[in-house]
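Input chain follows. Return structure tokens only.
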Amino acid sequence: MPIRHLFKSLLCLLMFVGALGSAQAADAEYVLGPGDIIRITVFQNPDLTTEARVSENGAITFPLVGNVDVGGLTVPAAESRIAEQLRSGGFVLQPQIGILPLQIRGNQVAVLGQVNRPGRYPLETFNMRLSDMLAMAGGIAATGADELVLIGVRKGKIERTQIDVPALFMKGDLAKDVIVSGGDVIYVHRAPTFYIYGEVNRPGAFRLERGMTVMQGLATGGGVTIRGTTRGMQIHRRAEDGKQQVIEPQLDQELAPNDVIFVKESLF
């Protein structure tokens, strides 16, 4: 291939990658909020370099111009606003402003329910994902379910998304590891349980794992005692209409949340 053709192909590839990166950055543009700390620089005016904290009403104090409202603006929009005030005040003729977020505290995400450290956590970068927030909250507790609920506002509408956490990693379904936004709420419900009593070695309530069978449930309860029998074993289950059902299950039958297994005493 001639050198000029190779160079042209390489140039086109670089332009495509650059455009793709710009588009992705535009989609994930961070919005400044109260509590954020930013560094502002003015090209060829080092005396105007300022570190400022965005106040609760979304304003910062900048030399010469005083208060500037930047809350709710993206970084480029905030740069343009400061430049306009410097220009309109006659302080700098052609200001070139640069803003670098140092600490992003304004936008927070609430992580609630069965996590090890529930609370509100700041978005430290504009592209933090669901897994990042779970890690900050100490991960899902032993009592937590495999699925969680993410509630947030997208395009002016409240969206509720149910996410299978193990599938993110076990199946490589990383598309569900979504980027979170300020004001989002992540909720982890308590894991489903089942109950076992009667002639078992460890009666009580236990976590119901996915696909758990009656036999596995018996094993979790320590197995049947020497006086017990699996014959005539019963499962008490609440149907969708709220009525109580009594089932004589097979050992390979799958358990349902809140099932109650009763193991009878052997007559012989």
